[in-house]
Design a protein that fits this description.
By secondary structure, this protein is an alpha/beta fold. It has one domain: Alpha-Beta Barrel (TIM Barrel), CATH 3.20.20.210. It has 15 helices and 9 strands. It has a 7-stranded parallel β-sheet with strand order 1-4-5-6-7-8-9. Strands 2-3 form a two-stranded antiparallel sheet.
């Protein structure tokens, strides 16, 4: 791993002593920033932005020029893996991601091939290497993927705005086929994240956006068991790289998630972080968990919300401040500054 000038994030994940709580923001490179919108306009469309390493590097760095953040996260999309499998990803205005060739049968699944991270997804690895070089150790770079379950949801539904009827019916009536798809995706995600680690990222995160769709037996069987296998594979292949698991709506399964031996758990805003800390103890660090809509409040109210989360977590290392999900496109960038400054000012008393 690259020697880091600011290693607060890594030290917090390892629960080592730090001077203040580190902070970064899910979707911190995105549409709420005018400079991002301008770069995307120059690229022409979202996928060209993702597939052009120099532009992906540029938008990864933009929030760090504006804010005192403790990490960068590589600009990409969780759906690049199924796109590389031949599902034909496109972005539709006001709809979002759409697959031209969604999964509809077991035969579709059996035709899938594992994408080569350095070939089929080489543009992502080039973006990682370009960004690591540009950061020059200033802060850690986080690499990420969608969870196998979340990728399967999109691959079977075919689009993002959906009632999830297809995937939930698939889970009930075609369980064997679904597990075959999840097996393929588990291998692919593990290879993809390992390649990102070897390209220079300092931490890895798995986004299980749709884990909360499931009941407890389904979550353990269809989502968490596959993320656990990925964590185990990453621990074997790149043991020095910490892993963060984030299941939106996963607050009721924190103990189970900690059992995977991941390094940190991301929690959404529906969970009290102090309660979460009591439940998982010292087994993992915690990341989160300000409600993204809180950034629409007044400056004083944002500061109060930040202070409340820091107080709830309490003293000591092991907390990475973040939103409980991604920042929304209509947020005023100045409100983000208020949040970040509040974390820096209020968190020192807990270290």
């Amino acid at each position: 791993m690259t020697s880091l000038k600011n290693d607060r994030l890594i030290r917090a994940i390892r629960k080592q002593a730090i001077d203040r709580t580190p902070v970064w923001i899910m979707r911190q490179a995105g549409r709420y920033l005018p400079e991002y919108r301008e770069t995307r306009r120059q690229a022409g469309d979202f996928l060209t932005l993702c597939r052009t390493p120099e532009l992906a590097c540029e938008v990864t760095l933009q929030p760090l020029r504006r804010y005192d953040l403790d990490a960068a996260i590589i600009f990409s999309d969780i759906l690049v893996i199924p796109d590389a499998m031949g599902l034909g990803l496109r972005m539709e205005e006001s709809v979002g991601p759409v697959f031209e060739n969604p999964i509809t049968s077991g035969s579709d699944i059996r035709k899938l091939a594992l994408p080569d991270p350095e070939d089929d997804l080489g543009y992502v690895m080039d973006a990682v290497r370009t960004t690591v070089n540009s950061l020059d150790g200033s802060v850690p770079l986080i690499g990420f993927s969608g969870s196998p379950w979340t990728l399967a949801v999109y691959m079977i539904e075919g689009r993002s705005k959906t009632d999830f009827a297809k995937i939930l019916n698939f889970a009930k009536t075609r369980t064997e086929d679904l597990h075959q798809l999840l097996e393929i995706l588990t291998l692919s995600v593990a290879e993809y994240l390992t390649a990102k680690a070897r390209a220079g990222v300092s931490a890895l995160m798995i986004f299980d956006t749709w884990g909360g769709l499931l009941d407890t037996p389904q979550y353990l069987n269809l989502s968490l068991r596959y993320m656990q296998r990925i964590v185990e594979e990453l621990s074997a292949q790149v043991p020095e790289i910490p892993t963060i698991l984030f299941s939106k709506g996963g607050g009721k399964w924190l103990e189970n998630i900690a059992d995977t031996k991941c390094s940190a758990i991301g929690i959404d805003w529906t969970v009290d972080i102090g309660d979460a800390r009591q439940r998982v103890g010292d087994r993992v660090a915690l990341q989160g968990n300000l409600d993204p809509d809180s950034l629409r409040l007044s400056e004083d109210q944002i500061e109060q919300q930040v202070a409340g989360i820091l107080e709830s977590f309490g003293y000591g290392s092991g907390h990475i401040f973040n939103l409980g999900h991604g920042i929304k496109p209509d947020i005023d960038p100045e409100k983000v500054s208020v949040m970040i400054n509040a974390v820096a000012n209020y968190s020192k008393r807990y270290h």
